[in-house]
Design brief:
This is Putative ABC transporter ATP-binding protein. By secondary structure, the protein is an alpha/beta fold. Helix content is 32%, strand content 22%. A 6-stranded mixed sheet has the order 6-7-8-3-9-10, with helices on both faces. The protein is globular, with a radius of gyration of 19 Å. It starts with 14 loop residues before the first helix and ends in a 9-residue tail after the last helix. The chain binds adenosine-5'-triphosphate (ATP).
């Protein structure tokens, strides 16, 4: 483990917490499971190849995520965050480096990981409960078992009573709850979330954040969450990782010092805002090269 970061500027949080919160990429603490990371990314590189040219989207990312840790990734638009998340799921191949889950190489999607995208891609002809149960159906689970699991997840995501509704009878926030319940149905160990709340209004978004923390806590998942919203990253995560402009590299990371459970009011505290500002300054400083490589 690397040396502790030097004392940061005053943020109003206790000194040891502030020291934890401020960490540059050289000094940031990796998860405590140095040799037993749930997710280990080493020198990951992704290049999109096409006739129009090659685009180097991710360039040499190293990242360890501990079992049960919640990591948020922030960075400029087009920096390679979604690409990185898709690589974690095995949806895009690496052109260099490697990704492992519990020591096993990731080269395709698997039941140990589930992705939640911004748009809830629900099957419109299926009811809410059948949408959630769909993955279990594909996995060969019996109907009784599927419905039992799906009903439990719908209750957990606040949708008890809506089992028989169809997607077009739901609000955006409700659809995204179904989407999260669906991702949880196969009981993945790692949840990969790509701006899942960006299409929601501010109030719904806030309640979904609180909801997600409840679910994450109840189900003890490891989570990697991509977002543009720094306040969301700080509120949700144990650690915030900032990417450079494309090609994505890790430029900085911060351990978030706030204890859990975190009330929504925490977002309005000075400590929370100071940390947001600190991260925002780093993200803002990233500049995108326009050329295609
Ligand atoms: N299928 C593809 N083929 C070629 N280039 C791609 C492809 N998908 C993404 N890219 C390029 O890779 C780079 C990174 O894109 P990506 O979507 O990963 O960024 P991002 O950080 O998630 O962006 P945003 O924050 O705006 O959602 C961009 O330059 C994009 O144009």
């Amino acid at each position: 483990m690397s040396a502790p970061a030097p004392g940061p500027r005053a943020t109003g949080v206790p000194h040891t917490d502030r020291r934890e919160a401020m960490a540059t990429h050289q000094q940031a603490r990796q998860p405590d499971t140095e040799d037993g990371a749930k997710l280990r990314v080493e020198s990951a590189r992704v290049t999109y190849r096409s006739r129009a040219g090659n685009v180097l989207a991710v360039d040499g990312i190293d990242l360890d995520v501990a079992d049960g840790e919640f990591v948020a990734i922030v960075g400029p638009s087009g920096s390679g965050k979604s690409t990185f998340l898709m690589a974690l799921d095995g949806l895009v191949p690496l052109s260099g480096g490697r990704i492992r889950v519990d020591g096993r190489p990731v080269d395709r999607p698997g039941p140990d990981r589930a992705v939640v995208f911004q748009d809830a891609c629900l099957l419109p002809w299926r009811t809410v409960i059948d949408n959630v149960a769909y993955g279990l159906e594909l996995a060969g689970a019996g109907r009784k078992e599927r419905l039992r699991v799906a009903a439990r997840l719908l209750a957990l995501t606040g949708l008890g009573g809506f089992e028989g509704f169809y997607p077009d009878q739901l609000s955006g926030g409700m659809k995204q709850r179904v989407n999260i319940a669906r991702a949880l149905a196969a009981d993945p160990q790692i949840l990969l979330l790509d701006e899942p709340f960006s299409g929601l209004d501010a109030q719904t978004r806030e309640s979904m954040q609180a909801e997600l923390l409840k679910i994450w806590d109840a189900r003890k998942k490891t989570a990697v969450f991509v977002t543009h919203q720094i306040d969301e990253a700080v509120y949700l995560a144990d650690r915030v990782v900032a990417f450079s402009a494309r090609p994505a590299r890790v430029v900085s990371q911060w351990r978030v010092p706030f204890p859990r459970p975190r009330p929504l009011e925490l977002k309005h505290s000075r400590e929370h805002r100071d940390l947001e500002e600190e991260i925002w300054e780093v993200v803002r400083a990233q500049r995108a090269p326009d050329e295609v490589r």
